[in-house]
Structure formats: C-alpha cells, structure tokens
Amino acid sequence: MDRSALSTMSIGGATFDLFVRTGRTLTSDADGRVSVCFPLGSKVRVRGICETCGGGAANTAVGLKRLGFRAGFCGIVGSDQWGEKMLENLKREGVDSSCATIVEGETSSFSVILSVETGERVILYEPGTNAHLHDVTFDRERVALANWVYLNRLLEQGCEIEDDLTAILAAEGGPHLTWNPGGCQLEVGLDASNNRRLLQHTDLLLLNREEALTFAKASSVDEALRTLSAAGARKIFVTDGRNGSIATDGVKRYSCRVIPATVVVDTTGAGDAFGTGATWALLQEFDLPTALQAGTINAANVVGAIGAQAGLLTDIEMRERLQQVHLDVEVSSLTP
User: Fold this and answer.
1) Phi/psi at 267 (5° precision)
2) What are the distances in angstroms from CA 302 to CA 20, 98, 272?
3) What's the structural domain count of the chain?
4) Is 159 helix (H, G, I), strand (E, B) or coil?
5) Which of 108, 122, 127, 157 is most buried, most CB within 10 Å of its CB?
6) pLDDT recorded at residue 1
7) In a domain, 108, yes or no
8) Is a pLDDT exceeding 60 seen at residue 3?
9) Mean pLDDT of the residues in the chain
10) pTM confidence score
11) DSSP-H helix ranges across the chain
C-alpha cells in the first residue's frame, strides 16, 4: 500500500521547550549519582538559548509525517503564545491537529532544558494543559479512523483513556498500536488490569532499560522481555543509551549497537525518534532487525541537533541511511 494512504495518530503531550546550553559538565558524588551543579547565589553565563517544540505526541506525529505517512496529533494545548507556536509548528510540518483540544485561559506545557557538553540534560517542566487529556477530551471517533496509533506517555489523568483505546483496538479492522508507557502506567505495571488489556493489543512496546525493569517488575532486561511477551505484547524494543537496543518478537532476542562515533549534541527526543523509526519500518512491513536499525538511525540523527524534532529523518533519507550505515543485529534465543 502507498504509505501516503496510511494514517497515524499520536496521542499524548505537546510541550514548548526552551533549551539552555549551560557549558557545564556532569559531576558524580560518592554514591555515583550524576548531577549538574550550580552554586546558589551565582550568576552563570550560558553558551546559548534555543526555542523549540517538543512533547512525545508532537514529536512522534512530526516524525511519522516526515517519514511519509498522514499523521495526526491528539492532545491538549493552551490558547497562549506557546500553544499557538506548537500548533503553527504542527501545521508547518503537515501534521493534522484537528483532533487537538485548545483550552482557554490556561498555560500550555512548558519545559526549560538545561543541557551539558555531553548532550545529557535536566528538564524542568510544567505539565500545564497536558493534564487535561482524559476520557472527556479524547476523540474516540477520530482515533478509530487511523491505521496505526502511537500512544505516548500520559499523565495520571490521561490513563483514563486506556479503556476507550483498548475498545478501539479490539474492534474488527481496528488500528495497530505503538505504546510508550510512562509515569503512572510504569509504576503499576502489570498489576493494573487496563495495562494488561492494552498490552494484548500492542504491536510495538517501547521502553528504555529502567522503564522495562519497572514496568515488568523484573531484575534483568531479558526477564522483562519474557514477562511482557507473555502478557501479550507482539514486539518489544528496549533502548539502553550508548549500549544500544534489544528487542524480541516473543521467540528470539535481537540486539543492535549504536552507530559508532555518533556526535551527541542533545539527547532530548532520542526515544521518540527511535520509536518513530521503528514504527515506520513495521508499517512498511520490514522485519524486526530492520526496525531496530531504523530506530537506531533516526535516534542518532536527532541527538546530533538541538531539540527533539530538528534531526528527524524523511522517508528518502531513512532509506538511504539504511543502505549506507552498517549495523549488525545479533540474534539469539529469548529462553533462559
């Protein structure tokens, strides 16, 4: 099928991001905890400031649109200047924002991101209008029309939409699902019946290493993969920063390293870029190793620029990179 005929809907947050390049380096205390330090009362000169648009659902909608799909955004923004800029950005990227809800008289989600020389960052955020995504503002009819739904991290109130979404996915001819859980979903994990039901309709489950261990209440990534596969997730991808990524289809275990000598400017949005690259590959009916490679390539391009969206690849660029970048995917059995 022509990919331009395939529609996607990203559900979750949109955030206006203010990046502050601090010029600082990371420090570690006696317990190995890593931090960025600013002495109280000091006046710190920064190396640069940059305004960008971000937020999980906005990032994945833009990413999927650049990769050639009809992409929609389902989330909440305020009627303030930040909300206007986020909607303008979606329009400029060609994302359909008609499923968005605009809240009058409240502040849109806003983040101040303090980044250091290694590309790592500290995010100071105000959830703002993102807290209003719940079953009352959830457009069930529009979401049901999509071929593929991308569910991003939700605030606690937003978890109320899981039952509605499960019903949409379970319907005959319903959409496929990429799910990147967060917050309250991770903490309760498989103890929550709505999480268990949603997993049974999840085509691609995306987590980083810490999230996978928390969500599955596991002591190792392989244990988490086995637990979540048994719970119904069809494919599971786990990212682990510079250590690369691991995936399973419930039978085999796949591992992929990061691209060597990747220049890291800013790590914000790397997970969203990985997810959109992997989802693109599955929508194209590529195999799981290719999906791992596509996610890795998209994430590597995003961390080379400031902001979560600047480095997102187009369909043509992705296909070229898959031909140019050699990434071995190791295959083994998932069973212990």
Assistant:
1) -90, 0
2) 17, 27, 9
3) 1
4) helix
5) 108
6) 45
7) yes
8) no
9) 91
10) 0.92
11) 56-66, 81-93, 140-144, 162-170, 184-188, 193-199, 209-216, 221-230, 270-283, 288-302, 315-324
Give the range of the structural domain holding residue 14, as residue numbers without chain letter.
7-27+46-333
Residue type, 329: V
Alpha carbon 271 to its chain centroid, in Å, reads 5
Q: Which of 240, 237, 280 is nearest to 257 (CA)?
A: 240
Which amino acid is residue 170, in one-letter code? A
- pLDDT tens digits, 15-46: 999 988 887 776 666 666 777 777 788 888 88
Answer whether 18's CB lies under 8 Å from 123's CB.
Answer: no
d(C-alpha 256, C-alpha 277), whole Å: 14
Residue 37 lies in a domain: no
Burial class (CB in 10 A: 0-12, 13-18, 19+), 50: middle
C-alpha span between 254 and 263 (Å, rounded):
25
**Residues constituting the chain:** 336
pLDDT in tens, 75-131: 999 999 999 999 999 999 999 999 999 999 999 999 998 888 777 788 888 888 888
Q: What CA dihedral angle connects 185, 188, 194 and 197, to 10 degrees?
A: 90
Q: What pLDDT is stored for residue 2 in this prediction?
A: 53
Separation CA 187–CA 173 (nearest Å): 31
Q: Is residue 2 part of a domain?
A: no
